[in-house]
From TrEMBL:
Role of this protein: Catalyzes the synthesis of alpha-ribazole-5'-phosphate from nicotinate mononucleotide (NAMN) and 5,6-dimethylbenzimidazole (DMB).
GO biological process: cobalamin biosynthetic process
Matching HAMAP family: CobT
Family in the record: Belongs to the CobT family.
GO molecular function: nicotinate-nucleotide-dimethylbenzimidazole phosphoribosyltransferase activity
Transmembrane regions: none
Name by which UniProt lists this protein: Nicotinate-nucleotide--dimethylbenzimidazole phosphoribosyltransferase
NCBIfam families: cobT_DBIPRT (TIGR03160), PRK00105.1 (NF000996)
Pfam families referenced in this protein's UniProt entry, alphabetically: DBI_PRT (PF02277)
Keywords: Cobalamin biosynthesis, Glycosyltransferase, Transferase
Active site: 317
UniProt pathway: Nucleoside biosynthesis; alpha-ribazole biosynthesis; alpha-ribazole from 5,6-dimethylbenzimidazole: step 1/2
SUPFAM superfamilies referenced in this protein's UniProt entry, alphabetically: Nicotinate mononucleotide:5,6-dimethylbenzimidazole phosphoribosyltransferase (CobT)
Length: 351
């Protein structure tokens, strides 16, 4: 399998000097130490990641990765497969949740169609790659060929390259793919040695009977796959085109020193594949929200991730990350612009 050239060595580490300086600055700002809670940690991590004394997430690059899933043949989603292609058009026309949020946040938005079952017309802002007309049915055969995995990883890395060239200070990846909660759950089961019933959830809205059928389909896929735990082998066997591209984008951002704000269940599973492939990539990740999809908890725990928000969102598209972005902006503004005890003439804590 050919891997993106940005992966020839492990990702760099964030810059400890800027991280430590940011910690020292937090200690002298006019507030009791720690009183801004997680916002302090966010600013300190961003300072180290950006190698800057004034962290900023004004310039944000959002990319939505879309693809179809052969496992839909097993009846595992509440929605029909053609919605994937229809939603790509909705992203381009500005009517999807992430389209609204990208405008609201003044972020760049691009859409990458990795491969749909129904053809999608040429649309402005949509990069049509069509690596395959969706994946194969992972319950009966490997979802992707090694060539397809390579092409999808490279597509993600290309997005990271574009984000870097545009001067992005933060990257948000989103997903769109009917059936991809089955795919993501299967991937997570294989990587975490979890059982299908632990990680199968309602996705777009299955009832309890639908969820138990979905767990049975995932169980069949896991039996077929066997016990190979190599992250890219698992990705090829049980993954999706958009999930592979997200993995490529996350590792591509880490390689280029761009912090990533991780969205919900599907993007977190792509991040898990990335972290299993290159553990240092974890140091470039911020976690935005806890999805309503129940399997998300296990995936977050495996990366020791504490998401910022828990709003019961389960949309995908990068929407949870977009909703959390203002928290990162607040963290930066407070870190950069608050007065120090000495500067404001405020007495510090008693020694
Ligand atoms: O990211 C999440 O947390 C999430 C949770 C549930 C559903 N989704 C979205 O819903 C679609 C997949 O759901 P399903 O039921 O078709 O597997 C896909 O387009 C995802 O973006 C996303
Ligand atoms: C309408 C719709 C929008 C979505 N956005 C992400 N996943 C989705 C699934 C559906 C069904």
């Amino acid at each position: 399998m050919t891997l993106p050239t940005s992966w020839t060595s492990p990702p760099p580490l964030p810059d400890d000097r800027f991280r430590n300086e940011a910690l020292e600055r937090q200690a002298v700002l006019t507030k009791p130490p720690g009183s801004l809670g997680r916002l302090e940690e966010v600013a300190v991590e961003l300072a180290g990641q950006q190698g800057s004394g004034r962290p900023s997430v004004d310039q944000v690059h959002i990319a939505i990765f879309a693809g179809d899933h052969g496992v839909c043949a097993e009846g595992i989603s509440a929605f029909p497969q053609e919605v994937t292609g229809q939603m790509i058009a909705n992203f381009a026309h500005g009517g999807a949740a992430i389209s609204v949020m990208a405008r609201h946040l003044d972020a760049t938005l691009e859409v990458i169609n990795l491969g749909t079952v129904t053809p999608v017309p040429d649309l402005q802002g949509v990069n049509q790659l069509q690596i395959a007309p969706g994946t194969a049915n992972l319950a009966v055969e490997p979802a992707m060929t090694p060539h397809q995995v390579s092409a999808a990883l490279q597509a993600g890395d290309d997005v990271a390259e574009r984000a870097a060239a545009a001067g992005a200070q933060l990257f948000i990846g989103g997903d769109m793919g009917i059936g991809n909660t089955t795919t993501a759950a299967a991937l997570a089961c294989a990587l975490l040695d979890a059982s299908a019933s632990d990680l199968a959830g309602p996705g777009t809205g299955l009832d309890a009977q639908g969820v138990s059928h979905k767990a049975e389909v995932i169980g069949r896929a896991l039996t077929r796959h066997g016990d190979n735990r190599d992250p890219l082998a698992v990705l090829g066997s049980l993954g999706g085109l958009e999930i592979a591209a997200l993995t490529g984008a996350i590792l591509g951002c880490a390689a280029r020193r761009i912090p990533v704000l991780v969205d919900g269940f599907i993007v977190s599973v792509a991040a898990l594949v990335a972290v299993r492939q290159q553990p240092v990539a974890r140091q470039w990740l911020h976690f935005s929200h806890r999805s309503g999809e129940p399997g998300h908890n296990r995936v977050l725990a495996a990366m020791e991730a504490q998401p910022l928000l828990d709003l019961g969102m389960r949309l995908g598209e990068g929407s949870g990350a977009a909703v959390a972005l203002p928290l990162l902006r607040s963290a930066c503004a407070l870190h950069n612009d608050m007065a120090s005890f000495a500067g404001a003439g405020v007495s510090n804590k008693e020694a």
